[in-house]
Amino acid sequence: MEYGNINFEDQDGNILISIDQTDEAALSRDPLFTHCLAVVKVGNEYLMGKNKWRNRYEVFGGCAEKGETARECILRECHEELGLPISDIAYLGAMKLLLKPDHFSKDERVELGGLYGITLPDISLDDIYRLVNDKEEIAALDWYSHIKEKETIALIDEKLLGYYI
Predict the structure, then answer these.
(1) pTM > 0.85
(2) 38 in Cβ contact with 70 (< 8 Å)
(3) Regarding predicted confidence, which is higher, 157 or 3?
(4) Cα 82 to Cα 42: distance, rounded to the nearest angstrom
C-alpha cells in the first residue's frame, strides 16, 4: 500500500494522482471534494459491481450530495447500491484525481474523493444482489477473483483494491 503520488492512468485517460492520509473531516470541507468510493470485502474476496452504463466492474460509491460529509456520502451510496446497512467502515484516505470530460462535466478537472473499506459478514453474491436497491445502475455482482482477466474492470478501481487488505 503506497500513499502519496501514484499517477496511475485508467482506460478513459483519468489519472489517480495520489492517495493521501488527509483527515476525513478536512476532506469533507475541501471545495474539491465530490465523491466517495468503497472497497468491499467478504472474507478474502473483493466484491465488485458491474456498472450498467459503463459496462465494466467497479467498486461502490458515488457523488456527494450538497452538504454531505464524506462519511455520510459513502454510507448513503452503499445503502443505495448494496442495500445493506453499513456501520463498520474504515476511512482509508483522500484520492486526488485528474478527470477527463464526461457526463458530469464537459471540462477536465481535479477532484478529491474519500476512499473507504468495508468488511461484510459471510454472505453469498445472490443474497447481496437481492438487497441491491439500485438495479438501474448495478447490473451484476461478482468476486474480483472470478472476473480478473475475464471481464472489463475499471483500472483505477482495481488499483484501489490494494488499499484495503
Answers:
(1) yes
(2) no
(3) 157
(4) 13
